[in-house]
Specification:
Blueprint lengths: L2 H8 L5 H22 L6 H26 L1 H6 L1 H22 L5 H8 L2 H13 L5 H18 L5 H5 L4 H19 L9 H26 L7 H29 L1 H5 L1 H17 L5 H19 L8
Length: 310
């Protein structure tokens, strides 16, 4: 069933699915603001580890039977599940918290909106999906916008490789989310979405455990204080469960194509929260980069992808 058909048969003219999508983007945006606010106070790997642990425990009562029922299917597709875990939990999420220790939420907002063009590049690399000329040019435009952000508007920094390490971590995070979107097509169709999410959470805990132990011993241990507890609970309940749940519900009713435009709203919400709550200021290069990245993403969305023949 196509996106238009889903929208027509499920919602009619109802606006509530779009409200769900807006709320999901607001929750996702709050993750960037929170991560920046607690940067240097709450260790990033520890924040990610406990976020996924609490989210897993909350969902487990609703999924454990499904895990047992689909045990054979899980064993059969364990490599795909592991790839999804590394992409989403380790690269996608944890890299965000690491990056926000040293870069601004505004920079993260601009870099993160480039996910669609990066996804196109990755689908070509892994599955040889054909890329149209329009998609290729749009990817170049969006990529140049990212470079403007990384260079803080001074392209001389590109020659000197004088980048903010935090921005590079955010770029790695975007690549992780893009990889997750790419590999999601290989996940087993018979595995219920909530069970799949809970499995990824469980595997994520296992994969992050050694990194969390290293961070606790050699960098910074987690402390039991109101800031840490609040950050972990917010990331687990509001973001890992609330944002993803609302996003999935919205997509189910309006389709993936219409829902994808909300990535622009996420960038605007991250920027607004960064200015209002963190006191960050827009610089000239932010405007230039924003126009380039959003223009490239919009151009990408208008170009119809062509599937490579088998």
């Amino acid at each position: 069933m196509g996106d238009a058909e889903i929208s027509r048969t499920s919602t009619g003219n109802a606006l509530w699915p779009y409200f769900l999508l807006f709320c999901s983007m607001l929750f996702f945006a709050s993750n960037y603001t929170m991560g920046r606010a607690v940067g240097g106070v709450v260790p990033p790997i520890g924040l990610s580890f406990w976020r996924w642990t609490i989210a897993f425990l909350i969902l487990l009562p609703f999924t454990w039977r499904g895990m047992l029922q689909h045990a054979g299917l899980i064993r059969q597709h364990w490599m795909v599940l592991l790839a999804l875990t590394v992409s989403l939990v380790v690269l996608g999420n944890t890299a965000v918290y690491v990056g926000l220790n040293t870069t601004t939420a505004l920079n993260a907002a601009i870099v993160s909106v480039a996910q669609p063009p990066i996804t196109i590049v990755l689908t070509w690399l892994f599955f040889r999906d054909k890329v149209t000329v329009g998609q290729f040019m749009a990817t170049l435009v969006a990529g140049f916008g990212i470079l403007v952000t990384l260079a803080k508007g001074d392209l001389a920094n590109l020659a000197a490789l004088n980048f903010n390490g935090g921005d590079l971590w955010i770029l790695l995070s975007v690549a992780g989310f893009s990889l997750y979107a790419v590999f999601l097509r290989k996940s087993p169709d018979d595995l219920p979405p909530l069970v799949l999410l809970n499995l990824i959470q469980l595997l994520g805990i296992a994969v992050l455990a050694p990194f969390y132990a290293w961070e606790s011993i050699y960098v910074q241990p987690m402390s039991l204080d109101p800031i840490t507890i609040g950050a972990v609970l917010w990331a687990a309940i509001v973001v890992a469960i609330g944002a993803i749940g609302l996003w999935n519900a919205g997509i189910r009713h309006v389709g993936a194509n219409k829902a994808s435009v909300f990535i622009y709203i996420r960038m605007l919400l991250i920027s607004a929260l960064a200015i209002l709550l963190l006191g960050e200021a827009l610089q000239t290069y932010h405007y230039v980069a924003c126009v380039l990245v959003v223009g490239g993403v919009y151009w990408t969305s208008k170009a119809r992808p062509v599937k490579a023949p088998a």
